[in-house]
Amino acid sequence: MSGAQDLIIRQLTSADIANVRALHHAHRSNASQDTLLPIKYPTSFFLQLTLLRERVCLVAYHPQDPTTPVAFVSAALQQNPRVHGLPKSYSLTDGEDDFSDPVVSKDAPHIEILTLGVLPAYQQRGVARVLVRRVYDYFSENTNAPRDDTVVHTNVATSNTSALSFYERMGLKVASGVIRNLYRAVPHGSKDGYLLVGRISS
């Protein structure tokens, strides 16, 4: 089975939107009815990813089938971040609701990971890690966001232990208490979430 290095990764185009939307709702496993993402995003969400310079969606394809996506990540750059769940002062420590390390400035540009998903057959192969790093590279190369100052943040459902573990391995830390009803549009499962913040580890 191919690893991340064997995949084609390119920016989302309008021609890809239908297939990427379908991938968002692929099942997490053959035995599960849970989908990669529980929220159904409208077409306008994907159109913004193709039109706005400070938004991006990267899609991964197997070289033998370059029209059927196997993974995706979408993100937005926020130059003056207003981050839901972020305390007024904060530091990267292990303390809940304590995120105030001088190494990470709250006023620094933030890359918000909006969505991230990998088909089960391609999981545990470094695909998600490569996609997140490519997002970081994209904003460093295409905007005025300085690589050394840019912070990454995302929200994760409290029940999504695999995503929490993944982002912590990438260098992010939980930077909030439980954010109640963050995923109120989700039809089933936990609606509570955490904010994770940090810099991508090398």
Automatic annotation (TrEMBL):
It catalyses: N-terminal L-methionyl-[transmembrane protein] + acetyl-CoA = N-terminal N(alpha)-acetyl-L-methionyl-[transmembrane protein] + CoA + H(+); L-lysyl-[protein] + acetyl-CoA = N(6)-acetyl-L-lysyl-[protein] + CoA + H(+). This is N-alpha-acetyltransferase 60. Belongs to the acetyltransferase family. NAA60 subfamily. GO terms for biological process: chromosome segregation. The keyword Acyltransferase applies. Residues 7-193 form the N-acetyltransferase domain. Coiled coil: none annotated. One of its GO terms (molecular function) is protein N-terminal-methionine acetyltransferase activity. The keyword Transferase applies. Keywords: Acyltransferase, Chromatin regulator, Chromosome partition, Transferase. GO terms for cellular component: Golgi membrane. Gene3D superfamilies: 3.40.630.30. CDD domains: NAT_SF. Its EC number is 2.3.1.259, 2.3.1.48. PROSITE patterns: GNAT. InterPro entries: Acyl_CoA_acyltransferase (IPR016181), GNAT_dom (IPR000182), NAA60-like (IPR045141).
